[in-house]
Amino acid sequence: MKGAEARKETRRKVEQSLGRRRRKELSFRILGVGATALGVTFLLVFFASLIAQGASAFMQTYVSLDVEFSREHLVPDGEPDLQFGDFDALVRGALRAQFPDVTGRSERRELARLVSVGAAYQLRDALADKPELLGTRLAVFLPASSEVDMLFKGKIDRSLPEEQRRISDLQLEWTDRLVAEGRLERRFNRALFTNGDSREPELAGIRGALMGSFYMLLATILISFPIGTAAAVYLEEFAPRNRWSDLVEVNINNLAAVPSIVFGLLGLAVFINWAAIPRSSPLVGGLVLSLLTLPVIIIASRAAIKAVPPSIREAALGLGASKMQVVSHHVLPLALPGMLTGAIIGMSRALGESAPLLMIGMVAFIVDIPAGFTDPATALPVQIYLWADSPERAFAERTSAAIIVLLGFLLAMNLAAVIMRKRVERQW
Amino acid sequence: MAKKSTTIALTASAVIAAFTTGVALAQAARDYIYIVGSSTVYPFSTVVAERFGRGSDFKTPKVESTGSGGGLKLFCDGVGVGYPDIANSSRAIKQSEIDACAGNGVSEIVEVKIGYDGIVVANAAGGIDMDLSRRVIFLALAKEVPGGAEGTLVANPYSTWRDVDPSLPNQKIEVLGPPPTSGTRDAFVELAMEGGCSTIPWIKALKSSDENRYKGVCHTIREDGAFIEAGENDNLIVQKLESNPNAFGIFAFSFLDQNGDKVKGAPVDGVTPTFESIADGSYPVSRPLYFYVKKAHVDVIPGLRQFLREFTSERAWGEEGYLSDRGLIPMPEDERSDVAGAVRDLTPISGAR
Q1: Of A150, A192, A324, B96, which residue has the fewest beta carbons closer than 10 angstroms?
Q2: Given an 8 Å threshold on Cβ–Cβ distance, is B27 in contact with A278?
């Protein structure tokens, strides 16, 4: 009977506390939902403002003009000359033909500013492709100057007094006439993906930075993946457990948390000043980023190796395999997906780094697109930094566009890591 | 499988070997010009570099933005393809830097003055208009200002512009400016602060009697929150001014030039910062910009001589040249032809100055 009393008492106590415990759970859930919602909101605001700012940079305004490839300007001494031909004069001529009423010298200068300085290079390339254009007349789409581009995209307030805008009343009037004749057109901004850096916003592109990032990441993975996996295999499978291996482990974990600028300083001292590797090259960038990603790869690889069940090792050993055979025939193939995932996560961290690159001369204006490991190069995050610091207004939207591209790459890499993990994951 | 890992090891060493040979080749010669230095000169230097690269058979020069001091340090490290050919600077080279150069074998340096740059004190286009003077700037921003009795200093007591000068509006002093690492800050302190400071007779007298104290008084900016260090990015300052109409900002003229719809420059000593007023020297807060060339590299690095010619050509730095479109204020014509002549002859600066 006493037992029944006690049970009743316990039951009473539980029932009493039940409401309180449920309330606690509810309030924790509300807090959790709130925290998640706040995080998602921040993310959405970030993306929305980026896209609102940067979407227009993927389009560029072009002016359709009738250009005459006149012999007078292009054949200075008998032979058509691509280097010394006055292609600017062709653009000026086409603009004058479009606006015959503009006569004054300073007005003509203003008129010439409607079209990008890149137009002349575009005509030169067109003639280089098709020499038979010489002496003919052709309607071509030429990139508009960044001021006209900003106006056409509605980013210049035309109600302001003339001295407060980057575009004069006359230029405004000419632009309106071009619009009325349907000669202004928004087209996909190919230059953004095919050109290197430029100080003219309408000619500036991220190709140079993309190639720089590509070579740098290639160097990083070629260096850090073999070293990282070898270190992980040794530490997990072969190294004796003693104070020294503990010390190494602590240090590796520590390195993963060192601020990246420190690696930049180290790179400057060791790779550039001592080993004389060329400054600003993707090679030196890759070496510095390898230092940065090595701890990440080692830690992830060790976790992957640890996850291989000991029974597999014991079975192989039992059948007479050597330690080396156990590792290379069984452990490594089974741990490889996890190692690769770790490598990709390390790479996506390396892609977003800019601080260590400051120290090794990769924050630089580089127009030519790098074609190898030792050419001077920048990287995508550095390009974003440089554009954000440029006075020209049109660089603001291009900065956001470059950020969108960078985020796209990061997303793709992280997605690849997730997919790889899902596909090759094994249940034991 | 064991074979596979050996292959991996072999590939890795092959890759490293390939890298090393690549390095050896790249170090043997450099076929592009290498420029370092001031972030103020960077926008001009890069425009010339780009035009030069597109318009000639040479490669486009590489321009690194390292700040004036950092650039001159790299420049002075030695002679050879591993070292820069040109250092941009928003101030003249110092004697100590010339000595450091000479110590590393960089003995012949050619100085090229390229034009002027104004430093503006600006606020949001919709903000109040305020006539400043260098004296007002000094009194509003110095850490210590003259107290009641002559020869005494007190911690800056002014919190509004009206406290400084009764004719100014009753508005809190709030100025955003560059950090001490910036060349713009150095020039601002030297030109605006010191300019205002020396209008006070007894401080001016200090210059000859106790120069260190004079500099300490004139060059130290207050740290009580009225002056806010806003970082090296001038675009950021412009954006902050837009959102805070009560604040003023200190930045280079080229940013005012590009953002005339968002911010306006306050007149200093009665002169509004415009292209013309800086060019004729009437706007008081302006400074010359320079770059320095290593004479030993000319005719060794391909295109260096031609690059110098492009930079000192009328179409680049002239009255209507493309650099003036970017906000560089050209020198008077006779000064331009003097400098261009010195560049043609590669006249080095003399050892002592």
Answers
A1: B96
A2: yes
Q: Please, which pLDDT band fits residue B232 given cuts at 50, 70 and 90?
A: confident
Residue A428 has pLDDT above 80, yes or no: no
* CATH code linked to domain B2-115+289-345: 3.40.190.10
Q: Is A389 on the interface with B (CB under 8 A)?
A: yes
Residue A199: its chain B contacts at CB < 8 A? 43, 46-47, 50, 326
Q: Which of B43, B65, B82 sits opposite A363 (nearest CB)?
A: B65
Nearest CA in chain B to A360: B64
User: Beta B34-37 vs A184-188: how paired, if at all?
Assistant: unpaired
- Which of A199, A218, A227 should be substituted to probe chain B, the one whose Cβ sees the most B Cβ atoms within 10 Å? A199
For B262, the closest chain A residue by CA position comes to: A164
pLDDT at B49: 94
pLDDT tens-digit map of A18-75 = 999 999 999 999 999 999 999 999 999 999 999 998 999 999 999 999 988 888 777 7
Say whether residue A198 is in contact with chain B using an 8 A CB cutoff: yes
Spatial distance between the Cα atoms of A385 and B32, rounded to a whole number of angstroms:
24
Whether A154 contacts A61, CB under 8 Å: no
Summarised one tens digit per residue, pLDDT across range B129-177 is: 888 999 999 999 999 888 877 778 888 889 999 998 888 888 899 999 9
Query: Taking 90 as the threshold, does the pLDDT of residue A125 lie above it?
Result: no
For chain B, say whether A268 makes contact (Cβ under 8 Å): no
Question: Which of A160, A367, A388 shows the shortest C-beta gap to B60?
Answer: A367
Q: Does domain A207-424 have CATH number 1.10.3720.10?
A: yes
Q: What's the rounded mean pLDDT across residues B64-87?
A: 90
Optimal mutation site among B23, B41, B104, interface A, most CBs of chain A within 10 A: B23
Report CA-CA distances (Å) from A32 to A19, A29, A35, A36, A253: 20, 5, 5, 6, 30
Amino acid at B57: D
- Positions of CATH 3.40.190.10 in chain B: 2-115+289-345, 118-287
ipTM associated with this complex: 0.78
B8 chain-A contacts, CB cut-off 8 A:
226
pLDDT of B25 > 70? The answer is no
Map out the domains of chain A as residue ranges: 2-55, 58-196, 207-424
pLDDT of B76 > 90? The answer is yes
Instruction: Using DSSP bridges, classify how beta strands B227-229 and B175-177 pair: parallel, antiparallel or unpaired.
Output: parallel
Helices and strands, number each (H, E), in chain B = 17, 11
Topology of B118-287 in CATH? D-Maltodextrin-Binding Protein; domain 2 (3.40.190)
Q: Do residue A393 and residue B259 have CB atoms under 8 angstroms apart?
A: yes
Cα(A296)–Cα(A343) distance, integer angstroms: 8
In chain A, helix, strand, coil percent, each to 5? 70, 5, 25
